[in-house]
Automatic annotation (TrEMBL):
<keyword id="KW-0547">Nucleotide-binding</keyword>
<dbReference type="InterPro" id="IPR027417">
    <property type="entry name" value="P-loop_NTPase"/>
</dbReference>
<dbReference type="InterPro" id="IPR003593">
    <property type="entry name" value="AAA+_ATPase"/>
</dbReference>
<dbReference type="InterPro" id="IPR003439">
    <property type="entry name" value="ABC_transporter-like_ATP-bd"/>
</dbReference>
<keyword id="KW-0813">Transport</keyword>
<keyword id="KW-0067">ATP-binding</keyword>
<dbReference type="Pfam" id="PF00005">
    <property type="entry name" value="ABC_tran"/>
</dbReference>
<feature type="domain" description="ABC transporter">
    <location>
        <begin position="2"/>
        <end position="232"/>
    </location>
</feature>
<dbReference type="Pfam" id="PF13732">
    <property type="entry name" value="DrrA1-3_C"/>
</dbReference>
<protein>
    <submittedName>
        <fullName>ABC transporter ATP-binding protein</fullName>
    </submittedName>
</protein>
<dbReference type="InterPro" id="IPR025302">
    <property type="entry name" value="DrrA1/2-like_C"/>
</dbReference>
<dbReference type="GO" id="GO:0005524">
    <property type="term" value="F:ATP binding"/>
</dbReference>
<comment type="similarity">
    <text>Belongs to the ABC transporter superfamily.</text>
</comment>
Length: 314
């Protein structure tokens, strides 16, 4: 289990993380999503014991990253968003080097290398030079390196960054295999649908703050009552915008030409009632289009609302 306990990190006057608290259960895949600069890499660097917290703490299976860093490092495998490879080493030599760094015996290293290359689909590349691998293969090799000491917890910072669609699918399948092996996986991305495919839970980071966190299934179920609605009107678009914007079931109402778009919370009956109210109010509705929100839409709405609240508080 991983527990973030009111974690904050400052660089001078810049707050990279602000009072982040969450619990990640063992054996699950937890995804951090956020735009570049949201604080994902900072959170992972603290979890990996690479940088200290400014306040708060993280417990990894009960061990503090601040006071028991050595014990934490034995339990984790960290794959940064940018990692180095050694051009003059072959794939087998590369993994053997890292295995020796963890003080694994030669016999154990040989066995682990064979197992890991099979896991990451690189068995046939065992004797090729690292520099000759494709980007996707290098990413998988780095994942194998991360697993060389058999850690319980994996910290993967944007592991699919820069990969083509096929390589992304291969990486996703490998992560599912690792979950079946009982690994706890923390993964970050700025692409929410990418995480939704594999994660049990996600957390949305924005400007260093955790603004949403929860089970994927629960979030998707919650969204069934939220839809994007576009209403086309004839004349007096300003009055139509004001009408819809003031309804309690409506959020983020905007106007573009003769169309009023907004997020609507409610079922078909509530939708019909609102349409009836609009007509009774003299709004000439010519068309109505409804589209359920997906997780990408959620991310955009959540971060937009937070940004608007922050601007109002300045």
């Amino acid at each position: 289990m991983i527990e973030f306990q009111h974690v904050s990190k400052k660089y001078g006057t810049t707050k990279a993380l602000a009072d982040v608290s969450l619990t990640i259960e063992s054996g699950t895949i937890y995804g951090f999503v956020g735009a570049n600069g949201a604080g994902k890499s900072t959170a992972f660097s603290i979890l990996a014991t690479l940088i200290p917290v400014s306040s708060g703490d993280i417990l990894v299976n009960g061990k503090s990253v601040t006071y028991e860093a050595h014990a934490v490092r034995a339990m984790i495998g960290y794959m940064p968003d940018f990692f180095g490879v050694y051009d003059q080493l072959k794939v087998e030599e590369y993994l053997d080097f890292y295995g020796s760094a963890y003080q694994l015996s030669e016999a154990v290293r040989a066995k682990k290398i064979t197992e890991l290359l099979s896991l990451v689909r690189l068995t046939e590349k065992r004797f090729e030079y690292v520099d000759d691998l494709s980007r996707g293969m290098k990413q998988r090799l780095c994942l194998a390196r991360t697993l060389i000491h058999n850690p319980d917890i994996l910290i993967l910072d944007e592991p699919a960054s820069g990969l083509d669609p096929r390589a992304r699918v291969e990486m996703r399948d490998i992560l599912k295999d690792l979950k079946r092996l009982g690994k706890t996986i923390c993964i970050s991305s700025h692409i929410l649908p990418e995480l939704a495919e594999i994660c049990d839970e996600i957390g949305v980071l924005h400007a260093g703050r955790l603004i949403a966190s929860g089970n994927i299934a629960e979030i998707e179920a919650q969204l069934q009552g939220e839809k994007w609605v576009t209403v086309s009107v004839v004349e007096d678009e300003g009055s139509a915008l004001a009408f819809f914007a003031n309804l309690p079931q409506v959020a983020n109402a905007t106007q573009q030409g003769d169309a009023i778009s907004f997020v609507f919370t409610g079922d078909e009956y509530a939708q019909a009632a609102v349409l009836k109210q609009a007509i009774e109010a003299g709004i000439r509705v010519s068309a109505l289009e409804v589209q359920k929100k997906n997780l990408e839409d959620v991310f955009m709405v959540i971060t937009k609302e937070v940004a608007q609240r922050e601007s109002q508080n300045i």
